[in-house]
Each structure stands twice: as C-alpha cells, then as structure tokens.
Design brief:
By secondary structure, the chain is an alpha+beta fold. Helix content is about 50%, strand content about 5%. Helix 1 (about 5-15) crosses helix 9, helix 5 (about 100-115) packs across helix 11 and helix 9 packs antiparallel against helix 11.
Length: about 450
C-alpha cells in the first residue's frame, strides 16, 4: 500500500473541516508551547547569527520573523523562527515518533498564514494536519530512523509541507506532490548534536523552509515522485531498517489525533533525560537529603539516554543541555533545570562540576524494551551515610499520561516569554493565543 495518497488526503481534508472543541484546545496549547520555546531562542545564536547573515535575503511579505521583529517572505520567517524555537530545548515532543513536531510545523504554518492573510481557525486546522501527517510518518520509520537521523529535521519537513499545503488550499493531489517533494528535501544528522556546534536548531528551521517550499511549488503545479515514501530507494528505505512499518500508523491516522497526545516539556534540556530528572527531584523532596550528601547517582535508561546523553565531561551550553551528569547535578543543587541552568556561571560552577563525576548512566533492558511508548528511567541514589534510594520513573511530567495542566502551561509560557517581551505584552499574547480569532503579529523583544 502506498502511504502517501492516504496521508495527503487526510491533510487536505483539514482545509475546511470543523475543529472539535477538544482538538482546537489541543492545537492552541501547541501554539502557546511553541511561542514559549520560540521567544527566548530569538535572542540567541544560531538564529541571531542567521538573521544577520540573511538580512539581504528577507524579501517582501507579511510573514513575521520574530528574531528581529520585521516582516518579510514566508520562507525567510519559517527558517529563522523554526531555528529559534528549537534553541532552548523547551519544544514539544510526540513520543511515538521521537520527534518535535512544533518547531518545523508551527514555524512554517504561522508564516504561511500571515503571508496569506488567514485567520486563527485556518492556522489551527493546518497545525492539526501537519502534526498528524508528520507524526504518522515518524512512527512508521522508528525506532531505527533515530540511529542516524534527527527526526525533527527529517520528518519535520513533512509537517511543514502538509500544514502549508492546507493554507494554500491544495487539494489531495497537490498535497501528495508537496509531501513527495518534501521527502527529497529532508535532512538532519544525529552527529550534529552528539558533539558541540550550532547545527541542531537549524534542522527544524531548514525543515520548515523546505516543507513550505515544497507546498508552495505544489500549489503551482510542481509534481513529485508519489512512491517516494515507501519505494525501494525512497525515504523509509534510506533512513530506516526497511521500507517503513506503515500499516499501524495509517490505521491510527486521526485515532486519536497526534496533536491531542503531545508531551509538553517541563525541563530545559534533552527529553531523554527527563524521567531521570523527575525521579531525582521526587526522591530528594521525599527524603530531604542535600546535594552534598550524595555519594553516587546511577541512571538506567533506554538507548538514547545512554548514547545521546551520557556526557560526563560536558562543558559548553550545547553539550550540557544533553548531559545527564550536568542536568542531574543541577537538579540536586538547584531543584530545577530551567533556562538559568545554562547561564555562563552555572556552566563553570565548581559545585556542579564536583557532583558530575558521581553520576553514571547505563542501558537498562526494561527501559529500552518500553521505548518509545514510555520514556522511563531507573535511578538509584546512594548517600554518604550508607542510605540508598531507588525509583523507577515510568513516564515524565508533561507526557500525555502525566500532562501539564493549562495553568502549568501558562506558568511555563510566562516564565520563558516575560523576560524577553515584558510582563504585560506576554500576558496579552498568551490571552490572544488562547482565545483570539486573529493571528499574532509582531512581538517586539526587550533589549537583551
């Protein structure tokens, strides 16, 4: 069975489909969470550097580049906003796909909606389509896709293409060609974030721009290879261990919609560390020990926790966001891993550096077997006085089975947005995102 026409037909159906209240609510949550991750990233490299490098390529248009507050071409805004929204590692997760759909999908869809003068209802329908199509493609190629590829950079291209196709009023055939072209533009290597460097946030930015380009071209009649997802030299064959496990994802299409099952990040680092951080936080609160009492912390996790996040010598901000050792030490000392955890003073803090060698990471067979349905951890904390505590953390705060409430999402948004745009503008933007019928526009940043 060719999955592409099925996915395209589903996406195209959202051009005029009514939004059930619970789906609209979920889509608005996704938009709020995206802005929460976006705004602090607008002040940081690589988005700030890219904005300077591309200032002559802005073009004319109504799409807002939140990095510098100016309007311009759709693709320019999608690229820079998609990059900024992935920088501080607070973006959403769809756990079945090992994937952050918001960064590429919202960045492209919002830019397209602004460029074409659409309203909030049209944007939300496009987000539902982009999330659904891309999440099901991610599900079909995992878990082997994640051995070498960064799903947000690869599969994110489909999310952007599907969402922009909806906003360009593409029919099912045009949408299929948009997805087909998106497939051959997708990219993003794991090695880009296993070391240092600024490339990782660029992955969803590129996906947003490339997906938007694919949809814009398809709307004008450009065609793609319609067997590109499942063909013998197609996307799945090139990026996973076979030509894709399509039967289950297609059977689950819209049942329930992926956008209603999102994980909202509760820590400002790699999601593969979250279960361990939740366990450490809860044990410390329950038992009342101090960081200085800790002799050793043993973290058992799934393969990505070990392969991506076992970084005992992490030094830079990028490395530390992916270091179980750094983030666990930070949690023990400060009780949270938020934006300030990666300030310069914290990165060199002698107390954190002294704790990091006491944290070890190993592969736990039970946690690995449960992945990706569960992002779990088994954590043992041994104290200097001989006491030991153990916790099996089967899920993460923010996962669909332990969700952040709307009030907690509001708190996250204000924590991340208010220092960047100001308290009153942040509250006004939040209210518009929850209830507004019009799209958000320019949001000026405060001086850094």
């Amino acid at each position: 069975m060719n999955p592409l026409p099925v996915l395209a037909a589903h996406a195209a159906s959202w051009r005029a489909a009514p939004l059930p209240p619970e789906v609209e609510h979920a889509a608005r949550r996704a938009l709020i969470d995206w802005f929460a991750a976006l705004l602090p990233g607008c002040r940081l490299p690589p988005a700030t550097l890219m904005a300077k490098a591309l200032r002559e390529a802005r073009g004319l248009g109504e799409a807002v580049c939140y990095v510098d507050g100016a309007k311009g071409a759709l693709r320019h805004a999608a690229l820079l906003n998609g990059t900024a929204s992935h920088t501080v590692e607070f973006d959403d997760i769809w756990r079945w796909g090992v994937y952050h759909p918001g960064c590429p999908t919202v960045a492209a869809a919002l830019a397209a909606a602004q460029a074409r003068g659409r309203d909030m209802a049209a944007l939300l329908r496009a987000l539902v389509a982009g999330y659904e199509v891309s999440c099901r493609i991610a599900q079909a190629v995992q878990p082997s896709h994640y051995d070498f590829w960064h799903t947000t950079g690869t599969v994110g291209t489909f999310g952007a293409a599907a969402a922009v196709a909806v906003l360009y009023d593409c029919d099912a055939t045009q949408t299929a060609h948009a997805l087909a072209t998106a497939a051959t533009l997708a990219g993003g290597l794991q090695q880009a974030f296993r070391g240092d460097g600024m490339s990782k946030p660029l992955h969803p930015g590129h996906a947003a721009e490339a997906g938007a380009l694919a949809a814009m071209a398809a709307a004008e009649g450009m065609t793609g290879a319609l067997d590109v997802l499942h063909g013998p030299a197609g996307f799945a064959a090139a990026t996973s261990e076979d030509t894709g496990k399509w039967e289950k994802p297609l059977a689950l299409l819209g049942k329930p919609l992926a956008i209603t099952e999102m994980t909202v990040k509760n820590h400002g680092c790699c999601g593969h560390i979250f279960a361990a951080l939740d366990a450490v936080r809860d044990m410390q609160r329950a038992e009342g020990f101090a960081a200085g009492d800790v002799e050793a912390v043993e973290v058992g996790g799934y393969a990505a926790t070990k392969n991506v996040c076992d970084r005992p010598a992490a030094r830079t901000e990028q490395e530390c966001r992916f270091s179980t050792q750094f983030t666990v030490a930070t949690m023990l000392l400060h009780g949270a891993v938020r934006l300030d955890a990666f300030a310069e003073a914290r990165l060199a803090d002698p107390a954190i550096r002294a704790l990091m060698p006491r944290v070890s990471v190993h592969l736990d067979p039970e946690c690995e077997a449960a992945f990706p349905a569960q992002r779990s951890a088994k954590v043992t904390i041994r104290l200097r006085d001989g006491r030991a505590f153990f916790r099996h953390q089967p899920t993460r705060k923010g996962d669909p089975d332990a969700p952040l409430s709307d009030a907690e999402l509001d708190e996250k948004f204000m924590e991340l947005a208010a220092p960047v745009v100001g308290e009153a503008p942040a509250r006004a933007l939040l209210a518009q995102l929850w209830r507004g019928a019009a799209l958000p526009g320019v949001v000026p940043l405060l001086p850094a």
